[in-house]
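A student in our group prepared the protein record below, which I am reviewing. Here is the record exactly as it was handed to me.
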Amino acid sequence: MPTVFLSYSQKDHHFAELAGLKLADADVKLWRDQGQLHAGSDWRNGIEQGIAESIAVVVALSENSAESSYVTYEWAYGLGKGKTVLPLKLGACKVHPRLETIQHLDFSMPGALPWNLLIERIREIEADATSEEDLAASAEGAQPQQDPMVKAISNYLNQRGYQMVSYDRLRRRIDPNLDDAKLDALVANNPSVFRRAVLKEGRPGLAKQVP
């Protein structure tokens, strides 16, 4: 069940309660502060956590919310965190310049409140968020954590501008416990990074793999 954060003035609590019921019917959870947080010293932490756990921030625009510093903080924090902000205009009121450019839904006409449009928009945001999570998971799965020793040797080669290096030098510069067998195994286990190399006088070594 997706969660959306409702930013509203406590004076508009009747709308907030109705929104909670309407969205619950559509299997959407509404996260809203019912007054307890504002009375405490850690209200910002609670608000920020609520926004972080939500896929979008719904802002109830009214004369009351236009005068609320809490509401301004909430939607501004949401924007700063990259959350989609959905303004709902409850009536004629002053709208902050940063919200004027965002398309709002008109909830000022009793009997014709566009709950279906709001729910449809939330579904779109939910689908987008799920796609991004899947892509991130795929990318993470396709790029396993690199072995620390592989990383150390690669960094050494790149910093020095070397294309290849002898095993003896790696023992001196990286780790004295790197015997030939360990280095042979490291090269064999990382064929996309290294390849075997034979340096002057037949000394064993490794080279950066050609892309």
In short: The chain has two domains: 3-142, 148-208. The chain has a mean pLDDT of 87.
